């Protein structure tokens, strides 16, 4: 067993840390206040090969794996939870899913655009009445002979109103239940009958766009299907097990950011004639935050490593996502307490860490859903895959 990073992994970590500090941080609070998403930053991340991990080299992969994607995403999230989100949209979501289930033409046509950041990616399952129970979705794709016709509504979709090409999950035959769902590669900007609207009321992740999509008789070509007709549910579950590790990496980064800020503050703020870090109660808070953050890192790196080995990892991925997202919320919440009144001020990042961390307990399967997966495998009801 070896716990250290290789020289190359350390270099990637440095590149991501520098990028976050030099390209994201200087304008971050202004961008957050104005809910500003900057496509040019996405392209820069693409140029630095941030989105090319865990992909075959013939489609633009950089020769690195899930572990390196996690290492990069962690460093970005340490500064901004919002700017971690693109790792799921441009790398771990659509590209890796198309690399696995797509035909040759789809792989060559779509993957390079996503990984370079030129094409803004997305994936759409959630609807107003469908969240955890993905198979309850109402959106349909009807076979009209020479095209598919889309009807329905998606909600809470990252990049909905800025997205280009991405994955849509819809029913092609509702009577077949799970086996009647299919996955499509669609274009949001160039398809008639598709309208998108931004959701501006989010608590956090203000630089990561989220929105709604309405399909009103939208026509898409017959060859838009990813994999086989009726394979959508299987593709969706496979995809979620990958995008979930991206969320876990994001949580790890946010926890790290919250811990670092709290330690820094505890070492500078004085009350009753001493630094607040000299008080045992503050020390206990910091010890818990640090221990949980360190444990989260081991769990997240282990799950990513298992993916790179091609070994079963659903169990470990869910544990990593559950533990890291809860650790991030706890670290951010304790961090706010350590900052006192300044923790309650939007001038300090403590509250942003908490607002962003909460999203990670919800997306890609809530904490309860992770517990269902973990307990189901532990009790022998399901196999780890
Ligand atoms: C910022 C943000 C970005 C998002 N991006 C995307 C995206 O890009 N694409 C996309 O498709 N979706 C996206 N989502 C949606 C997200 O994935 C869903 O919100 C999530 O799956 C939970 O669904 P829900 O909100 O409908 O909650 P529900 O499923 O309604 O759950 C509500 C509560 O009930 C609990 N619950 C539900 N079922 C069970 C059960 N069987 N056992 C125990 N407890 C249960 C849940 O844990 C939760 O606490 C995004 C959401 C947010 C906030």
Describe, in plain words, how this protein is organized in 3D.
Helix content is 50%, strand content 14%. The chain has 385 residues and is of the alpha+beta class. The chain folds into 3 domains: 7-116, Acyl-CoA dehydrogenase/oxidase, N-terminal domain (Butyryl-Coa Dehydrogenase, subunit A, domain 1), CATH 1.10.540.10; 123-231, Butyryl-CoA Dehydrogenase, subunit A, domain 2; 233-378, Up-down Bundle (Butyryl-CoA Dehydrogenase, subunit A, domain 3), CATH 1.20.140. The strands form 3 sheets. Strands 1-4-5-8 form a 4-stranded mixed sheet. The protein has a 4-stranded antiparallel sheet with strand order 2-3-7-6, with no helix packed on it. A hairpin with a 2-residue loop joins strand 9 and strand 10 (274-275). The model has no long low-confidence stretch (mean pLDDT 97). Bound molecules: flavin-adenine dinucleotide (FAD). The site of flavin-adenine dinucleotide has 19 residues, from strand 1, strand 3 and helix 11.
Please indicate the count of domains.
3
Distance between the termini: 22 Å
Annotated CATH architecture of the largest domain: Up-down Bundle
Shape: globular
Radius of gyration over alpha carbons? 21 Å
**Sequence of secondary-structure elements:** HHHHHHEEEEEEEEHEEHHHH
Strands of the largest sheet, in order across it? 1-4-5-8
Low-confidence stretches: none
Query: Level of helix content?
Result: 40-55%
**Number of DSSP strand runs:** 10
| Strand residue content | 5-15%
């Amino acid at each position: 067993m070896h716990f250290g990073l290789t020289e190359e992994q350390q270099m990637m970590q440095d590149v991501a840390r520098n990028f976050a500090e030099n390209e994201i941080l200087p304008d971050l609070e202004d961008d957050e206040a104005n809910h500003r998403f900057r496509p040019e930053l996405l392209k820069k991340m693409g140029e630095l090969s941030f989105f090319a991990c865990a992909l075959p080299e013939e489609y633009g992969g950089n020769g690195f794996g899930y572990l390196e994607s996690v290492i990069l995403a962690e460093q970005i999230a340490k500064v901004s939870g919002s700017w971690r989100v693109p790792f799921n949209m441009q790398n771990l979501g659509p590209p890796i899913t198309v690399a696995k289930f797509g035909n040759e033409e789809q792989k060559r046509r779509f993957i390079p655009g996503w990984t370079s950041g030129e094409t803004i990616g997305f994936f759409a399952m959630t609807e107003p009445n469908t969240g955890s129970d993905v198979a309850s979705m109402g959106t349909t794709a009807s076979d009209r002979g020479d095209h598919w016709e889309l009807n329905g509504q998606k909600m809470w979709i990252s990049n909905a109103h800025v997205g280009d090409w991405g994955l849509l999950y819809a029913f092609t035959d509702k009577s077949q239940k799970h086996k009647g769902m299919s996955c499509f590669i669609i274009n949001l900007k160039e398809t008639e009958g598709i309208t998108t609207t931004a959701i501006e009321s989010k608590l956090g992740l203000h630089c990561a766009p989220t929105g709604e999509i309405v399909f009103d008789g939208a026509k898409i070509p017959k060859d838009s299907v990813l994999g086989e007709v009726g394979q959508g549910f299987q593709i969706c579950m496979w995809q979620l097990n990958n995008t979930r590790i991206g969320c876990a990496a994001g949580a790890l980064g946010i926890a790290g950011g919250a811990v670092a800020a709290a330690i820094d503050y505890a070492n500078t703020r004085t009350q009753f004639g001493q630094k607040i870090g000299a008080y045992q109660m503050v020390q206990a808070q910091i010890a818990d935050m640090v221990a949980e953050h360190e444990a989260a890192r081991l769990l997240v790196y282990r799950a990513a490593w298992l993916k790179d080995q091609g070994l079963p990892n659903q169990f470990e991925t869910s544990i990593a996502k559950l533990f890291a997202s809860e650790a991030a919320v706890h670290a951010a919440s304790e961090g706010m307490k350590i900052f006192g009144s300044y923790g309650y001020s939007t001038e300090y990042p403590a509250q942003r860490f908490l607002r962003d961390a909460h999203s990670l307990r919800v997306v890609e399967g809530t904490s309860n859903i992770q517990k269902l997966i973990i307990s189901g495998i532990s009790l022998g009801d399901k196999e780890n895959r």
